[in-house]
Amino acid sequence: MLFPxxxxxxxxxxxTKKFDGLSLGQLHTLSLLVFVACLNxxxxxxxxxxxxxxxxxTDELVAPGELGTQLHxxxxxxxxxxxxxGGEVMNVxxxxxxxxxxxxxxxxVEVGLMLPMTRTNSGTLTEAGYIARLKYLPLQSLRxxxxxxxxxxxxxxxxxEFALSQRFYEQRxxxxxxxxxxxxxxxxxxxxxxSKGYVEESPNYTFALKGSYRFTASSRYGLEYFSAKGQxxxxxxxxxxxxTLYFVWDYDRKPYEIxxxxxxxxxxxxxxxxxxxxxxWPF
Length: 283
Description:
Blueprint lengths: L4 H14 L5 H17 L26 E12 L16 E10 L4 E6 L2 E3 L5 E3 L1 E11 L6 E13 L8 E12 L3 E12 L10 E11 L4 E13 L2 E2 L6 E12 L2 E10 L7 E10 L1
Antiparallel strand pairs: 1-2, 1-15, 2-3, 2-4, 3-6, 4-5, 6-7, 7-8, 8-9, 9-10, 10-11, 11-12, 11-13, 13-14, 14-15
């Protein structure tokens, strides 16, 4: 027995206090999302290597009836140069530009459209495809403090030089907690190829993790970690995974927001250095 009876009672009281601010419906939603995410942890994204969006999703939503814009900008000054299939465009020495337009349908739902573009290492600027998305956040923190949970769903098409399966469907779960100082968010991400000839393939699994601390009223500093595990039925050994750790700065002075990060690949199968930024502003 790890804890005698009084200690068990105290431990249970502390746990109960943490969830005291959540309604029964919110607790049910959180439990369901955690359960689904945990099931999926043992299962992986037929996602291209194109870094059109390097972000950890949190509880941010566009207000109902409002339009929002994000611009994702990132570059790879040093990275992998050997393609995994013929004609693949690699990230190294290239830049990616992705406008993301969003609209708030309700207090818990927003829809969006991303239009990724890239300047390849040869200097060619090209549009890469399109991605439509829907973000649903039924569990939201109260007065800016507490737990949040939801899901972001995407369906899109990329050119063949960026993905073997040009069409894909993605589910990204959003699980997190925050208070005035700390923000923690975990995104299990599952991506299915849906192009003809690839539909029967199992999905790929990636996860994104973020932790940040508020140093001033408008600035947070922290870490973001991205790890691509491979297909569900054929997990990739660590040395062959794409694992990158970013040191990030978040600036928030409404209505404008900035996320800026410098990422270091943690093994030989990851781009060595990546610089990323996200600029957000309303219409």
